[in-house]
Amino acid sequence: MVQKVVEIVGVSSQGFSEAAQDAVTTCARTVRGIQWARVAEMECRVEGDRIIEYRSLTRIYFDVES
């Protein structure tokens, strides 16, 4: 089995988990056979003393169809 990896940035105002889910959900709209997701990086946008946005760089692994 051969797999391909793409990197997707998910965004959420709720948290890192939701940002990762956003990346997977967005990718699943056009990619079949997703097997794994790995959060590679996390970052957040801050205004004043408040986190207003969570971002998750997520690597999506899926099977290559032959």
What would your notes on this structure say?
- The chain has 66 residues and is an alpha+beta fold.
- It has a single domain, classed as Dodecin subunit-like.
- The chain is built from one helix and three strands.
- It has one helix at residues 16-28; strands spanning 3-12, 34-47, 50-63.
- It has a three-stranded antiparallel sheet with strand order 1-3-2.
- Strand 2 and strand 3 form a beta hairpin.
- The longest helix is centred in the middle third of the chain and has 13 residues, at 16-28.
- The radius of gyration is 13 Å and the shape is elongated.
Outline of the structure:
The protein has 66 residues and is α+β, with helices and mostly antiparallel strands.
What class would the helix/strand composition place it in? alpha+beta
**How far apart are the first and last residues' alpha carbons, in Å?**
9 Å
Identify the CATH class: Alpha Beta
Helix content: 10-25%
Global shape: elongated
Instruction: List SSEs in N-to-C order.
Output: EHEE
Classified in CATH, the superfamily is Flavin-binding protein dodecin
CATH topology: Dodecin subunit-like
From the 3D coordinates, which CATH architecture would you assign?
2-Layer Sandwich
Low-confidence runs: none
| Average pLDDT rating | 96
User: How many DSSP E strands?
Assistant: 3
Spatial extent as radius of gyration: 13 Å
How would a textbook summarize the main sheet?
3 strands, antiparallel
Number of helices: 1
Number of domain units: 1
Strand line-up in the sheet with most strands: 1-3-2
Note the beta-strand portion: over 45%
